[in-house]
Amino acid sequence: MAKEKPWGGRFREKTKREVEEFTASIRFDQRLYRQDILGSIAHAEMLARQGIIKKGEAQKIIKGLKVIKKEIERGNFPFRTELEDIHMNIESRLIYKIGGVGGKLHTARSRNDQVALDLRLYLRDEIKEIESFIRRLQSSLIKKAEENIDAIMPGYTHLQRAQPVLFSHYLLAYFDMFERDIERLRDCLERVTVSPLGAGALAGTGFPIDRRFIARRLGFKKVSENSIDAVSDRDFALEFASASAILMMHLSRLSEDIILWSSQEFNFIELPDALTTGSSIMPQKKNPDVPELVRGKTGRVYGNLIGLLTMMKSLPLSYNRDMQEDKESLFDTVDTVKGSLKIFTLLIERIKINREKMLKAAREGFMTSTEMADYLVRKGVPFRKAHEIVGRIVRFAINQGRLLEEIPLKMLKQFSDLIGSDIYKYLLPEKSQELKSSSGGTSKRNVLRRIKRLKKQWR
Ligand code: ARG
Questions:
Q1: How many CB atoms are located within 10 Å of the residue 66 CB?
Q2: What is the C-alpha to C-alpha distance for residues 175 and 121, in angstroms, rounded to an integer?
Q3: Residue with the nearest Cα to atom 12 of ligand 1?
Q4: What's this model's pTM, rounded to 2 decimal places?
Q5: 279 has catalytic annotation
């Protein structure tokens, strides 16, 4: 007989050590100890309230669980591989500490609903923390935008210079992306905070439990409606993993711009020494490793999402042991997202802008040719026709090796006699971005108004 395991009763042979090692999750799921104990305390209280166990028994159990929590926090809890996972490790320890009464805790419960609950509690806490990290990053974006409110840079499409925009407007584009990331996480939280406890192994239980009491105790608004669903699905974790993948995609794009812009080719920004690293061979190098790594880590967060989707695909209902494989990738996603957000906040705070270089680039590249076309449109030329005229002027300028504003009026008039001497002011990037006053456009007025509104919202 192999009685030392909670499920040892029906087994004649001892589990092979190799199998214990292969199947155990304690190495990584010990991270859920807090959630596991929280859920168990709520469960024990409920059992006593419903008269399923005695009040005194529940008190003993709860006291024992609290002692175990301290043991784990102090690092003197004896984790045992042969006890598979965090649930059985804690339960065994409880029985060892308070005696047979500890064995009553698992009444009307299975590890299947228990682990689903633990994960939900864990994700709830992490989502809240991630939201606060995103908020911090957003506020560093607002601060940078404010500090550099009128720095003008070339805006790109196809990575070709397109139209001048305010650097602050560019930063606030990311603010909005991160805002939607928060919305996605909050939305996912609605489906995370549903209590599966009471589903038992898969069928529910014959004991007169109070599922709503537990849900309330844990701060969950809902209980799951179907016991099979409750232990079978991990869609809430998938939603989190996919919201995280999208968030990392945003961070990765911002990383890419920072990497490009800090190169000598662009030279738009400078990263602080404290946040860059050197090369072991080339003394002149200052490398943007932080955004590079964030860009690289985006790959692992995508991988975690695909891994979880693949693991769940084709699993027959209800619980399958495959699902134990949900944890490491979720934990990794949480760590990666938090780590990336934290370091990025520092990075944004300390980026230095090379305004002159940005403005110079914004003056080159004929980026105000749309303004010239719009000028002609205001004088009655259909836009398509204006586009063609300006196209010819740009070609002329390229051949002459001049900027648009360097072409004398007399020459411009040869392309269209509607062009007057006031054209030159429209060719300045400053003027061009100021003209983009449609709602959501890059004009300074717009950006200032947006910053003001955001700051008010946040107070
Ligand atoms: N360690 C398991 C997991 O993470 C807990 C549930 C195990 N249930 C079972 N019947 N073996 O999924």
A1: 12
A2: 28
A3: 324
A4: 0.93
A5: yes
